[in-house]
Write a structure and sequence with these properties.
It is a single chain. By secondary structure, the protein is an alpha/beta fold. The protein folds into two domains: 98 residues, 2-Layer Sandwich (Nucleotidyltransferase, domain 5); 159 residues, ATPase, nucleotide binding domain (Nucleotidyltransferase, domain 5). Helix content is 41%, strand content 20%. It is built from eleven helices and nine strands. A five-stranded mixed sheet has the order 3-2-1-4-5, sandwiched between helices. Strands 8-7-6-9 form a four-stranded mixed sheet. The longest helix has 19 residues.
Length: 271
C-alpha cells in the first residue's frame, strides 16, 4: 500500500486534482481540462478519457495510489462501472478502489454534514442541493443548458448573446450594449457571424460558459446591459426548495461557482 490518495473534481469547464498522504497532507495538486460523466455520448467519453489521461501523466510520479475519489459533473450511477474502469486504466488503480459521485454531492459533503445546509452552485451549469441526515438527496435544477441552468456561466453567456443580437437585429448595431459587444467579440475571436458561430456551435457548454467573465468585465466597465444580466443571474440560482427541505429550517447556505468569481467586479457587489 502506497499510503497515497487522489481526489478529482471534474467540471464542465475545468478539472482539479490533489494527491494526499494517509494523514491528509498535500503531496501534489494540479488542473486539467473539463469533462462530463455523459459517457453515453462518444464525444464526452473521449473528453473524459483525455482529462483522466492528462491527470494520470501529471501525477505519474505519485503512482500507485491506494484509492481515488471523483466528483464528476453529469455523473449518473448507471455509468459507475464504466467510469471506474476508465479511471483504473488511466491511473493504474483497481476499479474497486475508485469512488465516484457527481461533483455537487462531492462539494456538498466538503461543505456540510448531511442535513445541515443547502448548497447552490452556479458554475458552468447550476443546481441546488440538499443531502438529508438519512443521506437522501434533494436536487433543484441542474438539468442542463437546453432546459434551464438558470444563473450559470452558460446562462450568463447565452443571455448576453441573446440581448446583444436582439439589439443588432433591431438597430443595426449593439446600441447600449457596445461595451458588452466589444468584450464578447474579443473573447470569441471576432465580430462576424462565422467567428461567433464557430465559437458557440463548435465547442461545448464549458466553452460557452467561459464567456461569463467577459460579461463581468463589461459590467465593471459600466455596461448597464451586462450589469442587469449579472443581477438577474444572482437571483436565478436561488430555486424554490421543496417543502420537505424548507421544513428543516436550515439557515446554513453556501454558494459556489462562477458567482464567487464574478462578484469580484465592484459593480456586481451587493450594497
Amino acid at each position: 500500500m502506497s499510503g497515497r490518495f487522489i481526489g478529482i473534481d471534474i467540471g464542465g469547464t475545468a478539472s482539479r486534482w490533489a494527491v494526499v498522504d494517509q494523514d491528509g497532507e498535500l503531496i501534489a495538486r494540479g488542473a486539467a481540462a473539463g469533462a462530463t460523466g455523459h459517457i453515453f455520448n462518444p464525444i464526452e467519453r473521449a473528453r473524459l478519457t483525455m482529462t483522466l489521461q492528462a491527470i494520470g501523466q501529471e501525477c505519474g510520479a505519485h503512482l500507485p495510489l491506494d484509492q481515488a475519489s471523483l466528483g464528476i459533473t453529469g455523473y449518473g450511477s448507471g455509468a459507475q462501472g464504466e467510469i471506474a474502469a476508465l479511471v483504473g486504466s488511466t491511473l493504474n488503480i483497481e476499479p474497486k478502489r475508485v469512488a465516484i459521485s457527481d461533483d455537487m454531492e462531492l462539494a456538498y459533503r466538503a461543505a456540510f454534514a448531511p442535513g445541515t445546509g443547502h448548497l447552490i452552485s452556479a458554475g458552468t451549469g447550476s443546481i441546488g442541493l440538499h443531502i438529508a441526515r438519512d443521506n437522501s438527496v434533494i436536487r433543484v435544477g441542474g438539468r442542463g443548458l437546453l432546459i434551464d441552468d438558470g444563473g450559470s456561466g452558460t446562462w450568463i453567456a447565452l443571455e448576453a448573446l441573446n440581448q446583444l443580437y436582439r439589439r443588432i437585429d433591431e438597430t443595426g448595431g449593439p446600441a447600449d450594449a457596445a461595451i458588452l459587444a466589444e468584450e464578447l467579440f474579443d473573447a470569441m475571436g471576432g465580430a462576424d457571424w462565422d467567428a461567433v458561430r464557430t465559437y458557440i456551435y463548435g465547442g461545448d457548454r464549458g466553452r460557452i460558459g467561459a464567456l461569463a467573465p467577459a460579461v463581468a468585465t463589461a459590467a465593471s466597465r459600466g455596461d448597464q446591459v451586462s450589469l442587469a444580466i449579472l443581477t438577474d443571474a444572482g437571483v436565478e440560482p436561488g430555486p424554490p426548495w421543496p417543502g420537505s427541505c424548507r421544513s428543516n429550517r436550515i439557515n446554513a447556505n453556501r454558494l459556489c461557482g462562477w458567482h464567487c468569481e464574478l462578484a469580484s467586479c465592484p459593480q456586481t457587489k451587493p450594497d
